[in-house]
Structures are given as structure tokens and as C-alpha cells.
Write a structure and sequence with these properties.
globular; 3 helices; alpha+beta
Length: 82
């Protein structure tokens, strides 16, 4: 589970180590990405795909990671926190 550094108990996306038919199983949450990084949910979804599970090939993982790079930057402080 990958979480923002400001709130380690929140999931941004999860990748499973055990392959599924040689592919990587992934769950991604554009809503959570938009909560912690300066991007709208729509922009996060455009870059990393819709909320939910997917099974990716190696090249698809590369595309996901390229999109993720466009989202992550210094995280925002959690609401009500510092």
C-alpha cells in the first residue's frame, strides 16, 4: 500500500506482489490522490485511470507510473492539521 507521507494510514494505490497470470494487480484511488496532492480528482483520474482494481502488463505499469509522476509533488497538509 502506498500512502501519503503526511498520513500513512490512507491508501493512494496498492500493488500486490504476487503476479496474476504474469501481471501486476493494482488498486488506485484518484480521489485520495486529489486529497493529498495539488491536483483535481478529474486530473488524477486522467493521469492514473479510474478508481478501482486493474491487472497490468509491464508496459501498462510503465504508463501508470508515468501518469503518477504527473500527480505527485510535495503533498498537501491534511485537513485541520499542519
Amino acid at each position: 500500500m502506498y500512502a501519503p507521507p503526511t498520513m500513512r494510514n490512507r491508501m493512494l494505490f496498492t500493488a500486490w506482489v504476487k503476479p496474476v497470470q504474469g501481471k501486476v494487480r493494482l488498486y488506485v484511488s484518484p480521489q485520495s490522490l486529489a486529497e493529498f496532492y495539488p491536483v483535481t480528482e478529474a486530473e488524477a483520474e486522467k493521469r492514473v485511470g479510474k478508481d478501482g482494481y486493474r491487472v497490468l502488463t509491464g508496459p501498462e505499469v510503465d504508463v501508470f507510473l508515468d501518469g503518477l509522476k504527473g500527480v505527485v509533488s510535495p503533498p498537501l497538509a491534511p485537513a485541520g492539521g499542519s
